[in-house]
Amino acid sequence: MEMHQLRYMVAVARAGNFSRAAEQCHVSQPSLSQQIQKLEQELGERLFLRLKRQARLTPAGEAFLRRAERILQEVEAAKREAEESQHLLRGTLTVGVLPTLAPYLLPPLVSRFHAKHPNVEMVVVEDTTAQLLKFALSGEIDLALASLPITDNRFEVRELFAEELLVALPPNHPLAQKRLLRAKDLEHERFIVMKEGHCLGDQVLHFCERRAVRPNISFRSAQLETIQALVCAGMGLSLIPAMAVRAGASKQRQPVYRRLEPPRPQRTIVALWPRQRPLSRAATALLHQLTPP
How many CB atoms lie within 10 A of CB 139? Predict the structure, then answer.
């Protein structure tokens, strides 16, 4: 069974006449009739009643027509998507990302995206969640990668993955001798957290509050690398996203990382964009890469 046979069959059914169908398909009538006959022979059913100046569908032809039309529609849709993908990703894609996420998530993501869509220039804007929401609403960024909670209902929010937060300890800290920590082990410890306005800092403090831990905040910083360096220097402990732990694993001097007993602290990473503005094709392609089937 060939695609052109399906197209000829549908054309005859719509035109109600072999001659008109041949003209529409830009083939000779004998050639079209021959292909229809081959299709009928393969199916073992007559699809048309050949009248003097009319071709009328048989019951088998009516049933087959519905399938043939559906197949042709799917093929056309697939061709359109393939054609669009060749021209789709040109220009600039601006992505807003949390500073606690960008250095760890973006390098492999951008590399894969660029390999697949080399004609797109990607611009990365790193800022707090509040600022990213403003940039998205004003159209300064196409897509934002942030973490929950997002309470503004003007945004479409797509959950990507959840990430555990690990306790970062100075190498010589007594708690480093334990394999698994309890929340109450952190009571009265000095904490190093992100500066106010950074959602990771809020998430750490909310976790402590829910577990009745009263953290003694000794330092605040806007950079996870600085926080981990301060932990290594014995200035306190912190809760660090797992991806930041993996990214720093090759460095010589690192904090000691330990998990907490369940329920463990975590953050949920999301993609978001304004409901009122559909995603661009390039942003949609990036989102598909972030959420593979």
Answer: 10
